[in-house]
C-alpha cells in the first residue's frame, strides 16, 4: 500500500488512509471531517456495516476519548458519501 495506513473503528481492518472516511467530533456530535481538518479523527470504511459495527462496539467514544453522539444527520451524510464512493469504483 502506498501512503499511510489507518484502522477502521468498525471492522478494525487496516487500509490505506485514502480508502477510508475520516470523522471528527464537533460539539459532541460525530461529523464527516473536511479535508485538512485538525483535531482528533477516527476512520470508517465506506460501508454502512462498519458504521453499525462501530455503534455496537461503542467504538466512537473510545476513538474520540469522550462523548460522541451519532445522530441521523451524520448517518445520512455518511450514507451519501458511501454511495458516492461506490459510483466512482
N-to-C SSE string, H for helix and E for strand: EEEEEHHH
- CATH domain class: Alpha Beta
Number of helices: 3
Global geometry: globular
Give the CATH superfamily. Answer: YlxR-like
**How much is the radius of gyration in Å?**
12 Å
Q: Can you tell me the number of structural domains?
A: 1
Helical fraction:
25-40%
For the largest beta sheet, what order do the strands appear in spatially? Answer: 4-3-5
What structural category characterises the helix and strand content? alpha+beta
Stretches where pLDDT is under 50 for at least 5 consecutive residues are none
Total E-strand runs = 5
Question: What brief labels describe this structure?
Answer:
two-stranded antiparallel sheet, Hypothetical Cytosolic Protein, Chain: A, alpha+beta, single chain, 89 residues
Amino acid at each position: 500500500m502506498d501512503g499511510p495506513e489507518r484502522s477502521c473503528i468498525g471492522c478494525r481492518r487496516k487500509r490505506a488512509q485514502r480508502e477510508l472516511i475520516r470523522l471528527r467530533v464537533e460539539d459532541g456530535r460525530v461529523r464527516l471531517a473536511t479535508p485538512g481538518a485538525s483535531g482528533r479523527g477516527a476512520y470508517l470504511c465506506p460501508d454502512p456495516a462498519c458504521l453499525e459495527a462501530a455503534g455496537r462496539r461503542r467504538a466512537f467514544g473510545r476513538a474520540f476519548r469522550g462523548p460522541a453522539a451519532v445522530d441521523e444527520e451524520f448517518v445520512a451524510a455518511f450514507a451519501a458519501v458511501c454511495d458516492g464512493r461506490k459510483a466512482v469504483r
